[in-house]
User: What shape does this take?
Amino acid sequence: MAKVLIAYLSREGQTTKIAQRIAERLTQRGHGAELFDIEHGRSTLEPSRFDAVILAAPIYAAGYPRAALAFAKKHRDTLARVPCSFVSVGLAVMSRTHDGKAQTRAVVERFLKQSGLKPRRVELVAGALPYTRYNFFKRWVMRRIAQAEGGDVDTSRDHEYTDWAAVDAFATVFSQDLSPESQSAALSA
Assistant: This one.
């Protein structure tokens, strides 16, 4: 059984839901999972206490929140010594007008270069449009972006795009990577 840290940031709550789902799935597979809200958690967290780390962050305005970059930079050496994965949450992944995955990969690559983080696995996850939680201006801006991308524009309700089966599959693969056989194979590679 591995102790897994799931460090995350969330603005409207979708990344929190994704982090919680991953934690549930890892726990079901016999691992200990601890959630840590990077922006609102205790500042004394030490990732070196864990056997593995998942960092999850949402994309906003073609980048990640500064706190995600600061966390990755601060703990870069520790994260290089344990199985580490990065979960990128964003709407571009499900774009109907262009290759949103390629656009998202470019944002991820820029983040990895800036932070020095070298995750074993990167997972791209579609987020949500929680229109009912936005203020008037943000709802207007997000509706225009969604309209340009072929997304949902009904602002009277929220729209969730997260593929939960894919999130579960990611947790399964991550869990398998924590097996003693996978660990020894990674060390000998």
User: Anything to note?
Assistant: The mean pLDDT is 90. Strands lie at 3-8, 32-37, 52-58, 84-90, 121-126, 128-129, 159-160.
